[in-house]
């Protein structure tokens, strides 16, 4: 993946392509941050948008883990990513999504939360997920789900990925109104807002032109 970084009006710097080791470390770091953020939301009973929110919601009704549902929900989007962005992007996304599923399902073995404010969980969960996704996006991968759709909209129509993701997330959260208390819904919306604010402010096509 190559970046052309714009600094000011007339300055253009050609940034070198990341090597395989850099990509692997960044994707692993990003998936860990996302998984940690999901775990905070999960422990507080919060929801979020996208396939993450759907998986968190469905775990309340079926006897399947978050990781299993999350990966299954993302399969169609991995195929979409393969078709639109190519084999390398799709395989990296499968790896990233699989790592998030694995970490979330097993993180309780090394880390547990007895109690935290739902408001705090929404804030820190959204922030960690946003930063983690940003790292993954910058290294030619995604987590599947609506992230792929958001990237396609940015690539094809020039609409910021964060704005597309925010619209989808808010829609899913509003649809979850009957499944969580009003307070938890407010905290969930706050988390989704923080997540998408990070993406909107930092994943900018006018600042970073990505050549796949």
TrEMBL record:
InterPro entries the record matches: UPF0750_membrane (IPR051461), YitT (IPR003740)
Membrane topology: Multi-pass membrane protein
Transmembrane listed as a keyword: yes
Broad class of the protein's primary localization: membrane
Keywords: Cell membrane, Membrane, Transmembrane, Transmembrane helix
Compartments, record wording: Cell membrane
Protein's UniProt name: YitT family protein
């Amino acid at each position: 993946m190559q970046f052309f970084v714009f600094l000011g009006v007339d300055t253009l710097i050609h940034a070198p392509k990341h090597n395989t080791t850099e990509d692997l470390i960044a994707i692993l770091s990003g998936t860990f941050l996302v998984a940690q953020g999901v775990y905070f939301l999960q422990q507080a009973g919060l929801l979020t948008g996208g396939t993450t929110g759907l998986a968190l919601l469905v775990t309340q009704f079926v006897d399947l883990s978050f990781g299993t549902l999350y990966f299954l929900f993302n399969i169609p989007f991995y195929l979409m990513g393969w078709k639109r962005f190519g084999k390398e992007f799709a395989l990296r996304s499968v790896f990233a999504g699989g790592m998030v599923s694995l970490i979330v399902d097993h993180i309780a073995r090394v880390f547990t939360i007895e109690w935290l404010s739902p408001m705090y969980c929404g804030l820190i969960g959204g922030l960690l997920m946003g930063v983690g996704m940003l790292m993954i996006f910058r290294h030619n991968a995604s987590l599947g789900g609506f992230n792929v759709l958001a990237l396609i909209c940015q690539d094809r129509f020039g609409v910021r990925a964060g704005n597309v993701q925010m619209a989808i997330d808010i829609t899913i959260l509003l649809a979850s109104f009957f499944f969580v208390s009003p307070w938890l819904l407010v905290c969930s919306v706050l988390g989704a807002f923080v997540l998408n604010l990070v993406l909107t402010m930092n994943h900018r096509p006018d600042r970073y032109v990505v050549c796949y």
